[in-house]
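[Discussion] Sanity-checking designs against the backbone

I'm trying to build intuition for which residues belong where. Below is a structure token string of 112 positions. I'd appreciate it if someone posts a full sequence so I can compare it with mine line by line.
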């Protein structure tokens, strides 16, 4: 059974940092590109970052480029999203995604 379980969300002040984790089970992450998306209230889901296999090539939405870093540890079947310089507009539910599955999401709230 495939599962993606996100963790690490929470409340943080503007300018702060958070690290999201995604624990994958039921498949081998090394075989797939993985990604993080987010959905803010009243908005469509937005692709935030992707990381490929092998060379681990990364891509980011313009809105997070330079502030977020996606990484993977295939030995642990984990994917991470390190977020720096958080802004109120980063507030959303963040989802980990493999090509065919989504996690349940973790809430990130950026507020003073």
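Best answer:
Here's mine. Compare freely.
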């Amino acid at each position: 059974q495939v599962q993606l379980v996100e963790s690490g969300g929470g409340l943080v002040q503007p300018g702060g940092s958070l690290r999201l984790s995604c624990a994958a089970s039921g498949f081998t992450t090394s075989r797939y590109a993985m990604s993080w998306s987010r959905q803010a209230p009243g908005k469509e889901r937005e692709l935030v970052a992707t990381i490929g296999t092998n060379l681990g090539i990364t891509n980011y939405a313009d809105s997070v480029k330079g502030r977020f870093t996606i990484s993977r540890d295939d030995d642990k079947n984990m994917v991470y999203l390190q977020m720096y310089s958080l802004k109120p507009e980063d507030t959303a539910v963040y989802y980990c995604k493999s090509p065919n599955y989504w996690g349940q999401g973790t809430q990130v709230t950026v507020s003073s």
